[in-house]
Amino acid sequence: MKFPGRRKLKHYFPVSQPKPALPSFEVQPEKDTYIVGLDETIVDVVANISDQFLEKFKIQKGLSNLVDAATASAIYDELTAQECISDHFAGGTIGNTIHNYSVLADDKSVLLGVMSSNIKLGSPAYHYICHTSSKVDMNHLQAVEGDIGRGITLITPDGERTFAIAPGDMDDLDTHHIPENIIAGAAALVTCAYPLRHQTKPIKEAMVKALEYAHNHHVPAVLTLGTKHLVEEHKEELLELIKNYVNVLAMNELEAEALTGIKDPLEAASAMLDHVDLILLTAGADGMYLCGHTDDSVKRETTNPIKSASLADFNRWEFSRPMLQANCKNSIKVFSHIDPYLGGPEKIKNTNGAGDGALSALLHDISANHFHKESVPNSSKHAAPYLAYSSFAQICKYSNRVSYEILAQNASRLSKGLPEQEDSLEEAYWER
């Protein structure tokens, strides 16, 4: 694994040494540091159309319309013929997250999901692959005869956005395509709550099986909640899933309120820390919170200004490093908060993917800890069984910076690493 930060090395090829083997693009569990993501594979298509186009396909303007595969194909063919399509974006909250992780870490990740067995030039599956980092290992995807999901955004001359959603075969992922050995060797497994919407589809059982494998092999399991409405609809089932399998929970303030019934983000996070080990909570213009556990014996007090809100002096121990509650002899709850980087972008082009970007930074730090522990097991950095390499406060800074980069562009995925990526983690690697 390339440790966090872009290394400045002098490349040379000593003739006295044997030539190294060519790098493998497929993940090797016994050698590589990587994360695994399970997702509904979907492509977002953006097109500019007329009102007559909506009438032709009987699509209700300004709403999210669920369409069947035949209608979706007819819409897509018509858009292509009229050259109305302005953009294709590979989508999916977990697809975005592991792509961003591979861009930030410049290293491998594994995507579990479905992919069209027959990929045509210009097809949704083609665009999905083109817009996904080459570091993402897709060798474990399940082949399907139909299309992956398509989310078509139709923009009329008045600026109104109308959505035509075609699930395709994106929910046909089955348990036979969940590789236990790949999950067992991962630094983390990340998935989302969206499969709970499809109780009769194979992907729900596949997601649960992946979480079971992670739990059995002591691999940190990360879950994102999706949307407020999804949480409200499946609250009891979600809580049961979280209590049984989840270590890290990612959500926004609306989802947190829907899950706990508590409006205040800090109090909602504190309540959920009775069931999970770490929480990344994004709160829009109010910034983000990282909340978790550490052992009282290794807690570290912040040198930043002390903050109080619904919880007094809540950030006092934010220079501590996250730990699994089960690994703490005397666990304490730790809270850290950060305002939006530079106050947020001057102009926000797209809010999609900001939370996914923040989560990818957290996953990068978790995998960095995994890598360093494997490489330098006797380092003082591992005097306690920490979950992440950096402190709560430092992870907040990193996640915040990645979110800013997503908000400042017009796509939900990073196209490259941060402009001036800090090397603090990498430099600390050499400090034994």
TrEMBL record:
Keywords: ATP-binding, Kinase, Magnesium, Nucleotide-binding, Purine salvage, Transferase. ATP binds at residues 282-287, 355, 400. GO terms for molecular function: kinase activity. Its EC number is 2.7.1.73. Gene3D superfamilies: 3.40.1190.20. It catalyses: inosine + ATP = IMP + ADP + H(+); guanosine + ATP = GMP + ADP + H(+). Its cofactor is Mg(2+). SUPFAM superfamilies: Ribokinase-like. Pathway: Purine metabolism; GMP biosynthesis via salvage pathway; Purine metabolism; IMP biosynthesis via salvage pathway; IMP from inosine: step 1/1. It comes from the Bacteria. InterPro entries: Carb_kinase_PfkB-like, IngK, PfkB_dom, Ribokinase-like. Belongs to the carbohydrate kinase PfkB family. Catalyzes the phosphorylation of guanosine and inosine to GMP and IMP, respectively. This is Guanosine-inosine kinase. The lineage of its organism: Bacteria, Pseudomonadati, Pseudomonadota, Gammaproteobacteria, Oceanospirillales.
